[in-house]
Model the fold of this input.
Amino acid sequence: MGDATQASPLQDERVKKISPFRKALIRPELGGIVGTIAVFTFFLLFAFDSGMFSSQGIMNWSVVSAQFMVIAVGACLLMIAGEFDLSVGSMIGFAGMLVAIFGVTMGWPMWAAILVTFAICVTIGALNGWIVVRTGLPSFIVTLAFLFILRGLTIFLPQTIERKTIIGGIRDAAEGDWLGALFGGKILGGLFRWLADAGLIGVFDRGARAGEPVVDGIPMLIVWALALVVFGHVLLTRTKFGNWIFASGGDPEAARNSGVPVAKVKILMFMFTAFCATVFAICQVMEFGSAGADRGLLKEFEAIIAVVIGGALLTGGYGSVIGAALGALIFGVVQQGLFFANVESSLFRVFLGVILLGAVILNTNIRRIITGER
Amino acid sequence: MGDATQASPLQDERVKKISPFRKALIRPELGGIVGTIAVFTFFLLFAFDSGMFSSQGIMNWSVVSAQFMVIAVGACLLMIAGEFDLSVGSMIGFAGMLVAIFGVTMGWPMWAAILVTFAICVTIGALNGWIVVRTGLPSFIVTLAFLFILRGLTIFLPQTIERKTIIGGIRDAAEGDWLGALFGGKILGGLFRWLADAGLIGVFDRGARAGEPVVDGIPMLIVWALALVVFGHVLLTRTKFGNWIFASGGDPEAARNSGVPVAKVKILMFMFTAFCATVFAICQVMEFGSAGADRGLLKEFEAIIAVVIGGALLTGGYGSVIGAALGALIFGVVQQGLFFANVESSLFRVFLGVILLGAVILNTNIRRIITGER
Amino acid sequence: DGEKYVLVSHAPDSDSWWNTIKNAIALAGEQMGVEVEYRNPPTGDIADMARIIEQAAASGPNGIITTLADYDVLQQPIKDAVASGVDVIIMNTGTGEQARELGALMYIGQPEYDAGLAAGQRAKDDGIGSFLCVNHAIQQPTLAQRCQGFADGLGIELGSSMLDSGIDPAEIKNRVMAYLSANPDTQAILTLGPISADPTLLALEENGMAGDIYFGTFDLGDEIVKGIKSGVIKWGIDQQPFLQGYLPVVFMTNYHRYGVLPGNNVNAGPGFVTAENLDLIEEFAGEYR
Amino acid sequence: MGSHTAPIIQMSRIEKHFGSVIALAGVSVDIFPGECHCLLGDNGAGKSTFIKTMSGVHKPTGGEILFEGKAMNFTCPRDAISAGIATVHQHLAMIPLMSVSRNFFMGNEPQKKFGIFKFFDHGFANKVTMDEMRRMGINLRSADQAVGTLSGGERQTVAISRAVHFGAKVLILDEPTSALGVRQTANVLATIDKVRKQGVAVVFITHNVRHAMAVGDRFTVLNRGQTLGTAMRGEITPEELQDLMAGGQELVALEESLGGTV
Amino acid sequence: MGSHTAPIIQMSRIEKHFGSVIALAGVSVDIFPGECHCLLGDNGAGKSTFIKTMSGVHKPTGGEILFEGKAMNFTCPRDAISAGIATVHQHLAMIPLMSVSRNFFMGNEPQKKFGIFKFFDHGFANKVTMDEMRRMGINLRSADQAVGTLSGGERQTVAISRAVHFGAKVLILDEPTSALGVRQTANVLATIDKVRKQGVAVVFITHNVRHAMAVGDRFTVLNRGQTLGTAMRGEITPEELQDLMAGGQELVALEESLGGTV
Ligand SMILES: Nc1ncnc2c1ncn2[C@@H]1O[C@H](COP(=O)(O)OP(=O)(O)OP(=O)(O)O)[C@@H](O)[C@H]1O
Ligand SMILES: Nc1ncnc2c1ncn2[C@@H]1O[C@H](COP(=O)(O)OP(=O)(O)OP(=O)(O)O)[C@@H](O)[C@H]1O
Ligand SMILES: [Mg+2]
Ligand SMILES: [Mg+2]
Done:
């Protein structure tokens, strides 16, 4: 209508100029990126010669970070969809115990045990979601109930069936199983052998394995973590469903009125979170060979912490999977770094708390700049 | 204006009639009341002859409920003001440890140790609140950080000072202290003596205390619980400040625009929660005589559960102290009752989860009826 | 017949060491024809444990078997229970002297500090001068006492050699590796039970120190037994939990039925399990051993 | 216009109760394609509730809804949207933290194919959003901007142009102009006029008699949950309509003191 | 009226930036006691932002505010309220879960003494609330009803009558009539007229020229964060005002097709 519409959409006198560089910086992941740089700088300066950055040391914190990443991806998407899940930790214990019961006590082939476990756990995730969506209760409460219920079952089942709360022998049962290898093995063993022969990474010089490379492959856990991060990131930012996730978390009422199937989105995200927890659990039992009733305690908090450090909003509708992955990396590096740096270990929790606080304050300020809140 | 204003405000054709009885029933506490009746009916039927309703048994679940009540009152007011505090459990451990360090290790008079502990803990509560208000971060994250920080300090301090994680000897140190007696003693001993003489309650029939009544007074913990409930209830429903608490939780932005000092209200509520946690801790160390690094684990969840069972809204702006107290009572009775009723103890958590879920679903439906949401 | 006993422990729900005790009391209950219940504070909070003892006393059993994880906290409820006519036997943690003070019938168990001390002395004889203690439940005082005893047995300061490892196996494993790579001259490792021992075994295997470093542990389990057999673990301290669960039930029943009771306390441990004396142990590790 | 074609929506004797509150006590209205049907009435008369039963947000407590002659039973707004009923609610349907273009296409995301995968086409979405907003007289700084940073009227405009863009058979607008400036209001009224001419049925709720008279073909007045009847354009003067909207109450005193300016 | 007394609020060269957005680029306005000052302008012109700096919600980035001749520095809305500035915000200041009477008295709770204790006087609060609402033409079912169950217009009425009841020196109304029915609008305009006559300064934001002309003494038009100037009543015709409000853009095409009904 008229020439008014031509009024310079590109040049607006009401907007201060921002350099493209600064604009490129302003993204939800920024907090995570800054944090990662800070953390690495810190440990490179203060713990460089502690073995933290030897090939073995790198593998050490990578594995811990990968663990956090696996559950953080699920927690991140769920949090963006506006809910969270306190039953992740209990789900980890429960899933591990199911695999052990099916695969060891009941003697099923490992692939069957794993598949049935996935089916059961994802169904429980769906149940969680269904209750939340159906009753409109806060997910805090519903999943808190499941935290207790699943942990109770994880203690009760093996106790009744096997008369103990640790079931071992899973590694033997999984020997040669095709699906088990997807969770428990290592890849690229040959590459590391070659690197060791070429003198690029160290070899053991004492003990039973003298002569072997100190790092003999990349654990499947790390592969899973990277795969889940890529999947989550593409889903969230590049698909229609990703837009629905943001919408469901941002304002469920508005999203529903606009035709987004909010209930379906939320239930699917609960299922995905349960899936990630199960991946975590199965990688763990495959590596350690046993399932215990105390596995996964407090993991729900660690997942939430990683996600929040990574810049997501606890109230939903805002966040990024890459950020969550960086949050997990920061969390893992800090945790292991403190041990490499020989910090009094009972102070570990104090540091954890302080870093968490610092990271979220940094993030909030970054988000405020993005949305121009102030 | 004109005569239109007379149009029958008392008789509105657009409102269906509701009997006054039903109207009286519709209140936030209703869920708690129904739950309490249900729980007592259940245990009277199934655990009557287990000793649960002997004078000793009653004292047992009363004390446990009173414990929950003390922290639930703080958590309830804070939740209505729109925040919650995950550091309650760690605060309990920390406060107890402080009293022990001041009173035993450093040998201060007990009243001084208690007063300084109160001052420190309430200050930490204020710090919690200040960070939440100042940064606008969700209290979940801020208090989660303090959960770790305080627990870490609770382990670190005695470890460094005393080389152990448990400090005993508090009862001896508190002997004859006027302030210590306010937390550790029992009242109405004479009444129970008289009741025992009258044959209304049992007496010990052997051992060093043969002839003394099995219940020899009401612990100060119960007195504190009742006092805090009355205080909280009056504050919330009968004062100006109570209106501010509701307003701050219901919509902080709107409350601030209407002139409610939201930041002050929230910080005060964080301080009150810390105060309640400290009362809990000091009653505990006075009764048991030692402070340990494991005290109060998971108590934050128990407080939140009691409050939510009692009908408060996790998102703030709605709830009742009486409801929270009933929630604590239900929680305490169920927990101890399951032991009395001989339930397999590993199933305890499963029951807890199921009851929690049932209670909140009941409550939500009641609230929906009140606000006419559907 | 049909006496009712309650066993109260201080362990959190998921502590697997207590399985043996649960199995032992089930067996003893069956053999003696009595009913034995197991109770514990879900989070391991000792103040909650005190409430459970009070509750157990109120439910009017014939006897209570309890640990004495914190004398200060538990003394009053135990005294009350004794005063209201319930017999008490102290098991696992505590000392015979404390048991007597409380009016308990007897004490059966292994004083934690003494066990640690004995282990420390043994290690000192083997020429050890520095160590790492992997503590998976740092907030539990009884476990820290083991580390303290070990340090005292070696005659060195505990200092920062106690590692707060948490209970996640991957984290335990990686923390142990991190500690060892930051302190490569550590001579010995002490773990406090299967929860910390199993991942530590993997850690040592992965960083190549398995068999090289002096490795001792408390308590037994599948993996620990394998470790002892293969020589990676020098010794395991067996405090024979089976006896700690089984004997109190048997003693108490016989006391109630025939008025007989051993005149002394029973020290169920410490017994050192080494590659030489593994046979039955292997079969029942984690269940009755 | 209207009565000689078949109605696209027939609502008969719709009732809606919220707990003890009777929001609608039997309202019947027909909507015809190509007409602008104005829904008028006092605050709390039940207008929003009425159109929410039409757009699948509420399930009516009683009564019957026929869509294109067939009984319809929407269980959620998504059903209504795919049947061709687009609604701009009084309380907006925008997500503050999401960008304008993500909001614009919410529920109707454009997709681009990459082999077997389908991805959200951000480039296209941004372009369309900027164009549509410019057409309504709002120059966005960027389509990536979060909706939360727009003024109330700007948000309203996004909601309206979204509904119009995804051209439906029925367009429901609940007080769309209440927060709008003069220019934006003119644009919205012109837009209503345009889509009506394309054969779309428009339901238009307003408190402003002049806005109603400008575009309305038929006028239904609700009062306290009931309908006071429907009038055709030309059958009723603005003054009569105004009187009806006020619920028939005396306005003389006020009108005198303010000179008929309301 | 107005210019021969001293202004109660003088705002000069107010600037407000949100991040990179310049919402106000130097706006100067004086408010006089006993006058109704209308603030008009396009969507996003910065009206709400401007009155928020006046009521202590935002701190201006630049510029100066004089209240009764003294430089004022409100750090929070509470300061403004106690200085005598009452505001009805565009996005309401009501708590949905709280009862109408608790909302009505929020921040101004009536108290009753019991010895040394002071308690909230619920009986009094309920009575006043019912009375005030009835005076605005809304019959509440009960003062205990949660605000969340009221219709949009009903809520708006609560907010306005609250501001009026606690009679201040300055009353700021941000688009108070946008969601209101005819009768309620008339009531609000009559109320503005009444309080103005009592010597209160009223700042009235609206998009409706007729409403503005009905009660306004002076008219300030904002455009894109700057003021286009202030006119006295009688110095300007509704048509000129309308033109200014639309930001001076061409409305000819539209006006023709709609017949000047906007
Ligand atoms: N969810 C609900 N719960 C209870 N009562 C409700 C609910 N929604 C609406 N009401 C009531 O129903 C009646 C009609 O409300 P509605 O929002 O439909 O009015 P309206 O005609 O749109 O008014 P306005 O012009 O102010 O927007 C009001 O009295 C309101 O209080
Ligand atoms: N918190 C904020 N952050 C960023 N930008 C903002 C914020 N608040 C307002 N703005 C911007 O400032 C400008 C002025 O907004 P304001 O709400 O004052 O407009 P208005 O004149 O009240 O418009 P309307 O008539 O639509 O209510 C708008 O462009 C808006 O996008
Ligand atoms: Mg409406
Ligand atoms: Mg505005």
